[in-house]
Specification:
The chain has 346 residues and is an alpha/beta fold. The chain has twelve helices and twelve strands. The protein has a twelve-stranded mixed β-sheet with strand order 7-8-9-6-5-4-3-2-1-10-11-12. The longest helix has 14 residues.
């Protein structure tokens, strides 16, 4: 068969997909729509957080335009995150407008990462906007421990949110940060609980992002250790399942459910990185674990045409680093990057 270069009119006019210097095509953006949150998880935020002034935020229309510009340049998947995305006022407007890209087939998926506190209110509408899968963060099944880790979260409310999401037909993955001395003993119960409800569950290593009250080293539980502990109880079969994210999955033989491990510390997964992160002020972070960023708000506002914006996106992607270099140990002082996870979203 002779392979001809694609010279269709569409290929001549469509802007090229974004590809970084390491040949990684950028097909996934995570959009943090607010840095605010109704919880203060101890590993994510300090108790006394300073949030961005509202005037610095992109409007929902601007966020839609920014997302659409990425879609035009090859983004196939958008995750809406935060802070807590569902506390941003009128956030459903953004989900509704993004759904046109799902309808047209330009986007494969719009997903959301949430703490679940507002899910009971929004689950049906999210499903109506074409969202099919959501991640809900939950580090414990014990209401008192939940309150202490989130500083003031109500587990009951999150449980009601999960019920509403499942009733609306949303597939759920539970995300739990593995925390030394906090939830390692609870992990088997959490796995049985999640799988018993037909949900996937993923454990995440804590990352050194932003100043917090506790020492990271006291929180950090390597997942190699958790996995070894789980083997006393479960048979874990490696599987090929991929969601486009950094999690590696196993099937738990005893429950039949899927269990994921996200290991930014013990196993760096940057080689296949297909994503960038945009904050609610239009700052583009090319890597979760590096400080370098590009301002997309100025070019977005400078012109109604997407030309200057595309140029800024191209320049930024040309600087996407090979990967992060997180370290958590007793000798490394301070976080890898100064901003908290709530700025760029998980
Ligand atoms: N508020 C939403 C939530 O909690 O799901 C979305 C934003 S939150 C920053 C996204 C994810 O990042 C959550 O699963 C949270 O547990 C995780 N996270 C926050 N800080 C982290 C850290 N320092 N290391 C690892 N994961 C972290
Ligand atoms: Fe809020 Fe999510 Fe951070 Fe917890 S992890 S404080 S819920 S943004």
């Amino acid at each position: 068969m002779i392979l001809r270069p694609d010279v269709s009119p569409a290929s001549l006019t469509a802007p090229a997909p974004l590809v970084d210097p390491f040949g990684r095509a950028i097909s996934y953006i995570r959009v943090s729509v607010t840095d605010r949150c109704d919880f203060r998880c101890v590993y994510c935020m300090s108790e006394d957080m300073h949030f961005l002034p509202k005037r610095d935020l992109l409007t929902l229309e601007e966020l839609d335009r920014l997302c659409s510009a990425f879609v035009a340049r090859g983004t196939r998947k958008i995750r809406i995150t935060g802070g807590e995305p569902l506390v941003r006022r009128d956030i459903m407007t953004l989900f509704r407008s993004l759904s046109r890209h799902l309808d047209s087939g330009a986007l494969e998926e719009v997903t959301v990462t949430t703490n679940g506190s507002q899910l009971a209110r929004f689950a049906t509408e999210l499903a109506a906007c074409g969202v099919k899968r959501i991640n809900v963060s939950m580090d414990t099944l014990d209401p008192a421990k939940f309150r202490s880790i989130t500083r003031w979260g109500d587990l009951d409310r999150v449980m009601q949110g999960l019920d509403a999401a499942q009733a609306a037909g949303l597939a759920i993955k539970i995300n739990a940060v593995a925390l030394k001395g906090f939830n390692e003993d609870e992990a088997p119960r959490m796995i049985e609980w999640a799988h018993g409800r037909g949900m996937d569950i993923t454990f995440i290593e804590v990352m050194p992002l932003g100043e917090i009250e506790d020492a990271r080293v006291d929180q950090y539980l390597p997942l190699s250790q958790l996995r070894a502990q789980l083997l006393d109880r479960f048979t874990l079969d490696d599987i090929d399942y991929q969601t486009g994210g950094p999690a590696r999955y196993v099937r738990v033989k005893e429950t039949g459910g899927r269990l994921g491990f996200i290991t930014p510390l013990t196993h760096n997964f940057c080689e296949g990185c297909n994503r960038v992160r945009v904050t609610c002020t239009g700052t583009l972070y090319m890597c979760l674990g590096q400080e370098d960023a590009a301002d997309l708000r100025a070019p977005l506002r400078a012109s109604e045409s997407n030309g200057p914006l595309f140029e800024a996106m191209e320049e930024a992607i040309a600087r996407k680093p090979k990967g992060h270099d997180f370290v958590i140990d007793r000798t490394t002082r301070g976080p890898a990057v100064g901003r908290h996870m709530s700025v760029t979203g998980g």
